Give the backbone structure.
Amino acid sequence: KKQKLKVRIEELRLVAWVQSSFPASAGSVPRMRRWFPLLAIAWFAVIGFLGWNIVTYNGDDKMEEILAQLGQCKRRVAANSLDHLHAQIRALEEELEATKKRLDQATNTGKCPPCEPAKCPPLENADHQADSRSQTGTGDEPWSLTANIRKREKVRRRVLNTMQEMWFYIRRQVRSIRDAASGDIQTRLNDALEDLIDYYQAASVDIKSLGDIGGMQEWRQGQADKVSAMIKERIHNLQEPGDCSGKRLVCDIGKGCGFGCQIHHVFYCMATAFGTGRTFIMQGNSWSYSHSGWNGVFLPTSAKCESHGGGFSMWRGDDDTSDVVKMPIIDGVSPRPKALPLAVPSEFVTIIEGFHSYPSVYWFGHVARYVMRYAEPVKKSIDERLEAMGFKHPIAGIHVRRTDKINTEAAFHAVKEYMQYVEEWYKELERTTKVDKRRVYLASDDPKAIDEARQGFPNYEFLNDKSSSASAGVGARYSDAGLKGVIFDIEVLSRTDFLSCTFSSQVCRVAYELMQPLHVNAGDNFRSLDDVYYFGGQRGHDQKAIYPHTGKQGQLDLQVGDVLGIAGNHWDGYSKGTNRRTGRLGMYPAYKVEEVQQVFDAVKR
């Protein structure tokens, strides 16, 4: 920033000297031409000396003010206001020197001195200081460039969320009025809905594009690459220790439930092992889904430590000093591990919050990707089937869960209910991206769903693996073919760019988790027809009121700072939950709250 100002000042000095020494008259032109070679050499010398280390980035308000004044100086040069120009240059040199002193003081002391009305310049060790929150979780980050970027990104995402909840509210209200009307009024309201979605998507695209100005897209990518590498290294070092006689945690995959439920059980064991600083070992190799066991489908959770040696004690808490601990299923674990979802390790949370909408899902996505590392034959099979299918981006994914879940854990949903969100996603995407073909991967345990989709939406290309649908039925589910089918569906869904599904289905939630490490921020790349994201057996999912609310018609009253345990989002602008201050259960505006991020300190051995 200082170098930029120096270059601008040298430029203005040179222009001022030229205009004062060589007035623009007809007689002076030959004399000026004789000086042009010397002026050119001097000019390039200044640029070469000062310009080599200029780094372009968004400056703070004070520097922008200085640069604006320099622009005024340039215009005054054109008007031959040379006396005023020299005075402006001297003033800017003094401003530059004062800014340099503040920079030096901030760098040497680590504290930013007052400098009103402008903001203080960024500290050299901004990343390190901003990450200090990871140890405290207080949110009171010291002033720094990185900390301010993270705050701006959080506000930008909040604006997007508020707009989305507003659209949900408007859509529900207009549809309610439309359904009670008739004739011309219904037609006009349908037209109004089409216009409203157009307005909403235009504003949404513009706000998202704000996050790409000034190198922000590259900044987010850099932050994601940084923390992803940190997570992978920490998990690898824990799972592949130099000595297998250290602290270990074992789990048995034989939980009496479906694939999504069983794999989430393994994720929970892996997260608990990370939180307690133990190497996670899968106990036994028998599995109801596969005759070849876990290691016939996935890589061992630890290549070095595949056995725990025989003896173990049952889980007694995070502070258990036993060498080998066995975890019960999450539904009955007591005391509750600190690493239970939706908690995130404190060493990663600050960085993740800077670029991701849902840090919990991003963290668990990395846990999921580590656990579900495919054995080579399985990986090869998935890649070959994807290539034969013609899988390519952009592509949306829908998961239509029916059969045994209907009227027990979930309601029946027609394919068109999933597709309305796919259509909205494609319409917004096409504002900024050329889409050659609208593609959808459809996964379902109902083979009829693919025909329903193709008949109802002929302008789409639907990809589907018929063998997966056939083997997903209740009768064939617990077989090698059923296992290969569900794994393929989950993997393909995770590789799509947008998911439309029901989060009451564990299969869809696993796909959503696996999706996260493949993108910088795929936290919002979904629409659920029923539940919000959750992890079975999780800690309480809390939100905090950021705006007051006076409840109407049985709604909750909110005070700023109230903590609410969310039960669900109704996707109509309102959520349902319990105000922990008053103990009341009811509805409240979804845009008036923000997530409360739980954190835990992982043991490092």
Summary: Confidence is low (pLDDT under 50) at residues 24-33, 42-59, 77-81, 115-143. The two ends are 43 Å apart (CA to CA). Residues 381 and 488 are 9 Å apart (CA to CA).
